[in-house]
């Protein structure tokens, strides 16, 4: 079977959950003997996946032009099945160009652009879902959100997975990558210092070194966006100062929230390699999430898989799924979190077993086969 997987932001260094999904899924499906073509855009950090061909289209922020380029490429390479995410409706032109002669399309849905507050993307997303041959969702929360936002039948749930060869309980090592940075008022990264050099000089770099005051070590992973709750993180960092150290690991994105960063309240790290992420989670006492929405919550799941429990907002829709087997606690607000941090020793976290890439790949292939039969 020749399968095309389309996502315009695939990079070798992980930049977001959807990037990780398609890299992991492509490797798992290719290992089962199928031909994989990953379609993305040009990047300074080109992605490579064993057993898969990568086609990088010219980078553009013009979605109409990108969708047309994707459609042209798909007509040329003629895959048997196409897999894409809901985000930015990259296959909309391909699906609406011709109703006959095209390959069946499976759309993999996270929470909706309507919930995120992106009305222009939401209209395109609605059209994509209505034209797709099959829609699946990465969590039960995402399935409910897509159903309610776009008045479609609830999609079948195929949970994302975790790379259990990397993310599992074990000892933590010192990172060989990444920098500690400061933030200016625009959220731009300044004054980068290699983490490895700081550790070698005896400097304290949480969470990799014990806190000299014995404070709880919290790790936060995300971007400076309302979705990830950067504004809430700053409030919590102020409230927990003196109780906990908070380390924020930033992804690659411009800042979409005001930044009132205080270096004494928050340590900011950037550009950690994938190989150093398990050590980051194992070094922390808790993972902290301030997200308003998560379709799945990849960093949360990876931390729990490492045995590190998570503090999740009680309003986070996917929280019950991630914490179903005892992966942590939910909190109401900064005051409630301060009480929980001081009142409870971190438990040993366990991730539900169905968050597994092998299971995801097998279920995904069953969906592809059903589409071809139909």
How many strands? 15
What strand order characterises the main sheet?
Answer: 9-8-12-11-10-13-14-15
Would you tell me which CATH topology of the largest domain applies? Answer: Rossmann fold
**Tally of contiguous helical segments:** 13
State the end-to-end CA separation: 15 Å
The appropriate CATH architecture of the largest domain is 3-Layer(aba) Sandwich
Let me know the largest β-sheet: 8 strands, mixed
The CATH superfamily name of the largest domain is Glycogen Phosphorylase B
**Shape category:** globular
Order of helices and strands: EHEEHEHEHHEHEEEHEHEEHEHEHEHH
Query: Which band does the percent of strand residues land in?
Result: 15-25%
The CATH C-level name of the largest domain is Alpha Beta
Model description:
- The relative contact order is 0.13.
- The protein contains 13 helices and 15 strands.
- Helix 1 (17-30) crosses helix 13 (357-373).
- The radius of gyration is 21 Å and the shape is globular.
- The chain is an alpha/beta fold and 374 residues long.
- It folds into two domains: 2-161 and 356-373, Glycogen Phosphorylase B (Rossmann fold); 179-343, 3-Layer(aba) Sandwich (Rossmann fold), CATH 3.40.50.
- The chain has helices spanning 17-30, 63-77, 92-97, 113-116, 119-131, 140-150, 195-200, 230-240, 277-283, 298-305, 319-322, 334-343, 357-373; strands at 2-6, 35-41, 52-57, 81-85, 105-109, 134-137, 156-157, 179-183, 189-194, 216-222, 244-250, 267-270, 286-288, 310-313, 328-331.
- It has an eight-stranded mixed beta sheet with strand order 9-8-12-11-10-13-14-15, sandwiched between helices. Strands 3-2-1-4-5-6-7 form a seven-stranded parallel beta sheet.
